[in-house]
Records
---
Amino acid sequence: MRTISIALAVARKDMTSEWRTRELVPALAQFVVLALVIANFAFQIDSRNAAAIAPGVLWMALVFAGLVAFGRAFAAEREQASLEAMLLTPAAPAAIFAGKALAAALLLAICEAVLLPTLALFFGVRLSFDVVSAVLLATVGMAVLGCLFAAMVARVRARELLLPVLTLPLWIPFIVVGGQAVQAAMGGSVTGQATGLLLDLDILFVVLTSLAARFVLDD
Amino acid sequence: MSALIGTALTQRYGSEVALDDVDIAIDGGEHLAVLGENGAGKTTLLRILATASRPTSGSLEIFGLDAMLERRRLRARIGFVAHAPGLYPALSAAENLEFFCTLQGVPRARAVEVLDLVGLADAGRRPTAKLSRGAQQRLAIGRAVLHDPRLLVLDEPDASLDSDGADLLARVMRGRTAVIATHDHALANRLCQRTLVLRRGHVVGVPTRLRVVH
C-alpha cells in the first residue's frame, strides 16, 4: 500500500512539474508531428501502401520521442540533486522507480494522443481500438526499460549517447510485436495474439525492472 | 553512550584518497563540528555518515545498527542537508515538503509545522524557484527534520543563510545528535561541543572539546 502511495506521489510530482514548466510535452509533440511531416514527404504514399508504411513511421517516431522522454526522467533529478534527497528517505527504490516510469509513460501517452490522430490524417489510415491498445501496451514496457537505463546512465557524461545504445536492443521485441499488431489492425485483421504477447512482455519487464531498480538507484 | 562510531573510514576515488583511516565517535545528543579547508574531506565524511555514499573501507555503526547493511532503516532516523538544496523548483515550498512527507511516511500536516519552524510560513505557496537562495536553504533544512530524525548531518548549512541562520540551526539541532561541516569557527563554537579538523583526508590532532551547549 505504501509502495503504491509513494509511486503515485512521485508520478504526481513529475506530472505537476511538467504541467507548470511545459518543458517536455510541447517539444515532444512538435517533434512527432515534424517526424510525420518528413515521412509524408519522404515516402510516395498512396491508398495502396499507406497501411504498410504507417506502422513503421509510427514506431520510428515513438522510439525517438520515448528516448527523449525517458532520458529526461532521471537527468532532471540528477541536475537538481533531488534524486539523492528522495533516495535518502526510507522509501523503497522500486516505488520511486515505479513512479518515475509511470510519469514518463503518461507523458509519452500524451504525445501519442497527438501522434496517432496526426498519423491518421497524413497517411489516411484507420485508427481503431486495437491500434491504440497496441501502442499503449508497448508504451508500458518501453517506459520501464527506458527509465531503468535512464537511471543507470544519468550520472554519466555521455548519457545521451549511451541511453539509445543500451535501450534500443531491448525495445526491439516491442517494436516487432507492436509493429505487427498495428499493421494487422490497420489492415483490418485480428490482433489478439500480438496484443497478448505485448501484455506478456509488459509483465516480464515490469517485474524484471522493479527487481533491478534497487541495484540501479541505491548505490 | 555513542550514537555513532566510525572506524578506519577510508574513501578512494581511483588513485585519489579523499578520506584516509578516519575514526569518529559521537555521543547521543552531542553536536560535532567538522572543520577544514576546501578539499579536506568534510563532504566525503558527511556523505558517509548520512549513508549517502559507502566508504571504500572501514566500518560505521549508527544507533547500534551497521550503516552498510541497515541503510534504509537508518535513513528514517537521519536527516541530511547536502551542498545543493535538491528541491523541485516548479513545486511550492509546501508541496516540496508534502511530497517528502509521503516518502518519509509522516502526515502531510507536518509540512505546515516545519515551514513555521524554518521561518517560511508566509512563503509556503510560493514556487521554490522564486525563493531566494537563503530561503531555499531553509527549506532544505526543514526537509531534513521533517521526520524528526535523531541524527542530523549538515554539510555547510550556513552557506546562503542570513544573520538569523545560526538561531535556526540551533533550533533544529536541539535535542538531536548532530554533525555539522562548516568554515565558520564562531558558528562551530556556538553550536557544537566538539570539533574535528580534517586536512587532506586525515584527522588533524585530537578532536577538541569546546563548551557544553545548553
---
Amino acid sequence: MSVVNLKDVSVYEDGVPLLEEVTLSIEEHDFLSIIGPNGAGKTTLLKVILGLITPNAGTVEVFGTTPQKGRTFTGYLPQHISFDANFPISVFDVVSMGRYTKSFASYTKKDEEIVFGALETVGIVTFAHRQIGTLSGGEQQRVFLARALARSPRLLLLDEPTTGIDPEMRKSFYELLVTLKEEMTIVLVTHDVSVISVYVDSVACLNRKLYYHGSAEGALEKLEDVYQCPVEVIAHGVPHRVLRRHNND
Amino acid sequence: MIDILQYEFMRNALAAAVLVSIACGIVGTYVVVRKIVFISGGISHTAFGGIGLGYLLGINPILTALPFSVLSAVGIGVISKKTKMGEDTAIGVMWPVGMALGILFIHLSPGYAPDLFSYLFGSILTVPRTDLIMMLVLDCFIVGVVALFYREFLAMSFDEEFSTVVGIPAQKLYLLLLCLVGLSVVVLIRVVGVILVIALLTMPAAISRNFTYRIKRLMLFSIVIGMVVTVSGLILSYVFDLPSGATIVLVLGGTLLFSSWITH
C-alpha cells in the first residue's frame, strides 16, 4: 500500500517554481531519503505532504485521503523551529503537544505514558521537567523528535534532523531511525549524502523536478545530474567502500 | 485603614483592582510569552476611537470601546497575517487612525468632554458600578475561553507550525487571542486608561517570569502581583492625592526593577 501518493505536483511562489510535476509514491515501511541541493524544494515537498502548502497543480494523497486528514498519522520534525528559548514550558509539555488530537479534551494517563516512552526512546527522559531553553541544541532536537514520535505516527517526516548534532550522536540517531522503521514509514530530507549508503532503503533526488526515485545504489549515478557538479560520495563509518565507482568506469 | 472601606467608591475601586488583575494576569501572560506586547499596545490605543464614539453617541464610552477594541484586534491580526504589510506597519497604521477617529468624534460631539482624561490615563477611584459589572462579565468570558482552549493556546504560542500540523487552527486561535487582548483592554481602560493599559498587560507577567517557568503558575503569580500592586497604587494615590493610573504603573515599574534585581 502506498502511504503517500503525489501526482504531477507543482508549486509556485510568486510565479517562481519550487516544485515542477513531481510524481512520487512512498510505500509502507520504506525508509526514503530525499536529497538535493539548497533550494531544491525538499522542505516544500514535505510541507505538501503535510498539507501546509496546497500545490498549484497536481494531486496529493496521504493514507488514501487528503493531507489534512492524513496528518493524524504523521509525525513531523521541521528543519527550523522558531521558538523562544525562554518560553515558559517544560520538555514534557512540549512533547505532550504531539498527543493533541481534538479540542475540548485533555491529555490522558495513556498520553502521559506515551510521552515518557518517546522521551525514553530518544534518551532524554531525565530532562522531562526541565525548561526547554536549558537544554543544548542537540538535546532540543531530540525533544522535537520525541514530540514527533509521541504522535505514534505511521509516517515520520524528518527535515534535516542532524543539523547541529555532532557526528557521534548522528550515528546513534540514524541507528534509532533504523529501529523505528519496523513500525513506520520514514522520509528523511538530508544533505548528508553519506547516510544513503548505510541506512536508507530508497532515495529520491530532487531539484525542483524529481530526477530519480529508486534504490540507494542507483541514486549515486544520478547525484551529478541533480547537483550539476561532480559529487564524491564517501561512506562514513563503514570499513569498506560500499559504493560503486561511477563515471570513470 | 479599615474605615476607608465604608466609602462606596473605595469598595468599587478594590473590586476594580481584583477584576483588572484577573484579566491582566491571564491575558498578560500570553501577551508576554507570545511576544505580542506592541500589537496589544496598538489595540489599546485604537480603542480610543471607541471611547470617542461613545461621547458622540451620548452613551457610556466603555460600551462603544468594546466592539471597537475587538474589531481593531481582528483588524491588526488580519492585516499583519494576510497582507505583505507586516505586523509592525499594521500596528503603526491602526494605532494613530484609531486615536485620530477618537479625537474627531470627541470634537464633533456637543459640549465639553468631562472625564476624557480618565479614559486616557485611568481613574480607579471613579469606576461606576455598571462598569464593574461589565468588567466582571468580560473576566468570566476570558477565563472561560482560556480554560477551554488552554492546550491549544499553549501549543500555538510555542510553535505555530507544529500546532497546525496536529490539527489546531493556529491562525484562528491567534485572532481569538488578540480578541481576548481587546476585551482585556476594555476591562483595564477605567483603571489605567488606554495609554497605560500596556503596563498592566506586560509588567505583572514580566515580574512573575522571574520566579517560574510554568505557564499556569505564571498566570496565578501575575494575578496576585496585579492585585497587590493595583491596591498599593490605589492606597498611595488616595493617601497622597496622586493620579491613580500613573501611580499604579510606577509601582509596577518599581516592583519589576526590584524583582529583577533580587533574582538576577
---
Amino acid sequence: MNRPALLAPRDLAALAAALHRATPDSRLIAGGTDLMLRLRASGIRPDLLIDLSGLRELAFIRKEGGLVRIGAMTTFAQIQRDAMLAIHASCLSRAAAHVGSVQIRNVATIGGNVANASPCADAMPALLVLDASVGVLNRAGNIERRPLRDLLAEAGTTTLGTDEAIVDFSFAALSANQRSAFGKFGARSSVAVAELNGAMIVKLDETQRTITQARIAFGSIGPAAFVDDRVAAVLLDKPLNNDTIESFAQACSGMVSRSIPHRSSLPYKRHAVRGLAHDLGIAIQGAPMGSGAAEGFE
Amino acid sequence: MATAFKYVGRSYPAPDALRKASGELLYGSDLRLPGMLYARLVLSPHAHAAVGAIDTKAALSVPGVVGVYSYHDAPSTPYCRYRIVPGQAGCIDDEMLFASTARFVGDRVAAVVASSLEAASEAARLIEVVYTQLPPVFGADAALESGATRVHPGGNLVHQFDHATGEPAALPAGAVTTCTAVHTQMLHHAAIEPHTCLANFDASGKLTIYSPCQSVYGARTVVADLLGLAYNRVRVVKVPTGGSFGGKQEFILEPVTAYLAMQTGRPVSLTLDREECIRATTVRPEQRSVVRSAVRADGVLLSLEVDTLLAAGAYAGSSPDYAQAMAHKLTRLYRVGRYRHRGRVAYTNAPVAGGMRGWGAPDVATCAEIHMDQIARRLGLDPFDLRLRNLVHPGDIDPITGRSVGEARVRECLERGAEAFGWRERAAMPAGPGRIRRAVGLACGAHKNGILSGAFPDVCTMTLKMNEDGSLDLNASIHEVGAASVVTLKTIIAEELDVAPETISAREADSETSPYDFGCFGSRMTYVCGAGARALAAKLRDRLIAAAAELLQISPMILEAVNGRVRRIGVAGSDLSYPEIVRGSRMRHARDMIVTHTYKGTSNPGSYCVQFAQVEVDVLTGLTRVIRMLTAVDIGRAINRGMVEGQCRGAIQAGIGSALCEEVVLDGAGRAGTGGFKNYHLVNAADMPPVTVLLVEHDGDDGPYGAKSVGEIATVPTAAAIVNAVNRALGTAMTTLPLTPERIVAALGKVAEVAEVAEVAEVAEVGGWDASCS
Amino acid sequence: MQLSTVLNGRQVSLDIAPDARLIDVLRNELELTGTKEGCAEGECGACTVVIDGVAVNACLVLAAQVQGKSVLTVEGLASAGHANALQRKFVELGAIQCGFCTPGMLMSATALLARNSKPSHDEIRRALAGNLCRCTGYAAIIEAVAAAADEGGSAQ
C-alpha cells in the first residue's frame, strides 16, 4: 500500500522546505478535523502529508497596537477563551464558541477552517466582517498578505497554491464605537453544522444611537461566505433599535433571494434568515464596545 | 405499595458496569482471534441494477488480501434475515448472500477478506463491478402503481391484510367524522456500537459466531439453514451489545460473515462504518396511514379505521409482521365499537425496513394521536378530556386479539400525569404572538408484553443451579442489549429465594450451552422471561424446602425459606442454611440442587404510557425546542428502578429525534446515510429537556411481582406528544414527520395565506392533516 | 515512523504508519480497545481521549500528531485496579447502560473536571454535547459527573 510521506515542520523555515516538496496530491494537516474525513470519504491517499501541529509559533493570539494577530494553528478553544478577543473581536470569539463540539474545538484551528473553505465554516463570516488579511507563506519562505475575500474561490475551495500555507490572520481591533456580533443556528443548539450563520460589525456615533458604519457577512448561503453591502446599507444612519432590525431582517430575505435564486433551500432560508438577522440585532445591542467588558459565551 | 420487597424496586447498575467503565469489557469489534481476518463489504452504489462481471484483479493484488467473494461463487439460496423459528410463517426468502440484482444503494455485492482492515478497505475500493442500471422505484405509492418497476419478480405488493372488528353502524345525529393522513419517516436505530460480527469455522467443521445479536437461536436458524449445517454445528455466542433498539434483531451480518469464515477457514471479523449502518442494515419503515374516525358530539369514539401503506424497502424482512403489528395497538388503547385496519406492504428500492423499538406501536400511535388532537380541536374539547372519555379500562377485552388488556392503568397514567405536569394550567396559557411560541401537547400509547399472539406461543426455558456455598448459576439465553435484563432476572431470583443478588451469576446466551429462548424483543424480557425466572426460583425454593424436610425428617408443609435458610414456619433457630441443604442433600440423599423450568406465557396485557411535552417554536427559524417532558408509564412494577428511569429517558431522547430531526433521507439517486451522524442528528446532552418519570405500579398482571415491559412502550407516544404541542403552538396541522424547520416554516406560510385570504378562524383545517384524505 | 508518547502515564515508543489514525494505533497496535469507534467522523465522541489535558476525538487525529504529547485513555483512569470517583459514580448512578459511549463520556468528563472542578449542570451538558448516547437520555450521566465533582473529581 502506498503510504504518504509525512513531514512535521517545527518552524517556518522547515515548513517552507516542506512546501517545496508539495504536489497537487499533497495535503497540509492542521487540526485534521476536516481533512481526516475528506481522506476517508474519498479514499484518496496523498503523496505527502505536511503536519502543521508541531508549529508552536503559529499558535498565538496577540494585539499589536490597533492590530489583532492570530496564528493559523490557534485552536477554536483558545480563541473562544481569549479575553482580549472577547473585547476586540467578539464576533470571532462567539463564532469560535459555536464550532462543533468541545473535542473539535480543542484541535480544529482557524487556519484549517479557512483553508478548508466550507460554505458553512463558522470562522469565515466573522473574519470577513473583520476584514481580515491572511498571511500566506510560500515555498520561498516569504510571507505575503492577502485579503481574506481574495482567498475564497467557488465551491469550497481557496486560491491557495499547492506550495502555500496560511500562517496567520490580522485585522484591526474593534474601536471604542464599534460592536460586533455572530449568529448561527443549525439542527441542534450546539454541535451542529450551520444552517445559516453570519457576523456583523456596526459603528455608532458618539451618542451611541445612530449607526454610522455597518459590515455584514453571511455563510451557508451559496458556495462561499460573503460580505453583503446592500444589506449593510439598510442600517446606515439608522438608530440601533427594533424597527431598524426588522427592516434589516427584510433586507436579509431579499439578499437570500438574490444569492441563491435557484436553490431548493431558498424558500426556507429566505424566511429563516430573518431569525438570524434578529439574533444578530439582539446580540449587537447587547454587545460590548471595542473597549467594553467581555460577554458570556454560548 | 402493598407488598414490601427486599430487592425488587431498588436501583442496580447495569451488568458489567465496572468493566464498561474501565474499558475492559470486550465488545464484538474488540475481539481478536489468532489468524483473524478482516472483511469489508462492497455495497451497490445504484438503487437498482443488474450485477455483471466483477473485476477482482486489482483487489487481489493488494498485499494481505485473501479473497474476494460475490454471487459468482457464493450460494444463491434465498433466505429471510428475520426468521427465528424454522419454517416461521410470514418469512419471505428473498435475500441472498450477495446480490445478483442490486435492489438498493447498499445492497451487498461483494466482500473482501484480508489480513488487515486497511488492506480489505483498499481492495474493496479497487473492485470494479459492471452494473447495468435498471429504473428504480422509490416510495410505496409509486411501487404499487400499475406498470411500476418490479423490485422482485413477483411484483411489489409484499403483503396485505384487512382486520376488522365490530360492524359499521349508521352514525347518530351530531356525530363528527374526521380524517387524518400521517406520514412517518425512515429512522436509524443509532446504537452507538456499529454492527459487527465475528465468525470462525474450525477444522472439526463447527461454525462459531460471536454476535451482539438479539437472538442466538434465530441467528443459528438462519445461518445453519442457509449454509446447510446441522443446528448443533452452528454455535452462536452472544457478545456484549453496544445498543440495539431492534437494529440487531435481524440477521444481517451473521450469514455473510459465517460464509466468509467457512470459505477462508479462518476467523473473520466484519464491522460496518456509520454510513453503512444507516444505509445497509435496517431502518424503521417509512409508512403513511390514513386514520378515519366517527365520534359522538361529546367525543366518544364510534369507529376508527386505519389504512396503512408501508415501504419494506428492498427485502421483505420483518415488514409484513411489522405492518400487521400496527393493527394490534389501537384497540388496546381505546374503546371503540368498530375498528378496521387495512395494510399494504410494498417493496421499494430503498434501505431494508426492520424492527425497531416499539415495533409498529410508535408508528400507529403517532398517526392515531395526531388524529385525536384533530378531533379535539374540531369539537373544542381539551385533548385530555377526549382521551379520558375513550381510553380502555382494566379488564377490557381487546376485540382484535380477544385477549384481556389486563390491569390496564392508562387512565391513571393520564390523570396522574396531567396533574403532575400541570396540564390544565399549561394548556390554558396562550402560545403568544411573538417570535417564540410555546405550547403543550400530550399523547397516549399502548404496547404489549411478549409475543404470545394467536397460535404463536411465548415460552422460555431456564436452568438454575445452587452451589455448595449457596451461590447460584442461572443458565438462560439472555440477550443483554443495554436494558440490564441480566440484572432484572437476578433481582427476581434474589427476591424469590431471599438471597442477595450478588450471589447469583448469569451468563448471556450461547446456543451451544444455554436453553432455548426466542430472544430479546417483543417486550418479553421482564414480563415473560422474568416470570419464568420467578417460577424457576420458586421451583428451586420448593426443592430446597423438600431437601431440608428430608434432612430434618419433618414435613415440608411446616417449613419456610427465609433469608437464605429453611426453617420451621415462625420458629427461629430451627433452620438449615442453603449451603447446608445443598451439601447434606447431595451427600446423604444423592440429590442435586438444580432445576430447569419451561415457562409458558398465558397472557399478553397492554403496556401503557402517556406523555406530556412542552415546546417552544421559533416562527422565524422554524426550530423547535422541547423544554420539558413528563412520561407516565403503567409499568406494573419496577424491578430495577434506576434502569427503568434510564429506559424512559432514553426512549424520550429517541422520540424527540423522531418528532423533530431524525430522518434517513434518500437523495435523488436513492442514497441514504451519506455523512453518517453529520447529517443524521441525534438529540445531544445540551438539547435534552428535563424529563419527569412517573411510574404507575400495581399488582394484577402475570409478570413478576406485577411487572410489565417498559423499554418499548416508553417511546410510543413521544413523537405524537411533541407534534401535537407544535401544532397547538402554531395553529398548524402538520402530519409529516419529522417536523423539520423547513416543514414548520412552510406550514406557517400556509396558515398565513389562509388567514389572509379567507380569514378563517379554523385555519388548521386547511393546514395539512386531511391533505391526503380526499 | 517512530512514535514516542506518554500513554496513560507510561512512556511508549512504537513504529506506526505516517497516516495511521490515533484510534487505530490505540486499538490495534497497543490493544487498548476501551476507546470505541462509533462513527469515524468526530460526531459521536465514543473515541474521545484526553491529549495534553484536553478532550479530543481519536478518530480525527493522526497518531503522528501525538508525538511527544501525553495521551490518557479510559484504561488509564483507574489506579492499581481501583476505579476513580468518576467511574464509580457512573456505575452507581446508572449512567451506564449498554456502555459503548461510556469510555468517551468518561474522557470528556475527565477533561472537564480537570479544567473546572465544580461545573454546573449546564456546563456539564455542554461539555458532553459531543458525546452521543442512545440509551440513557443523558440525565444519569450528567448526575454522575456532578456527583464525581462533589467528591473531588476524577483525581480520587
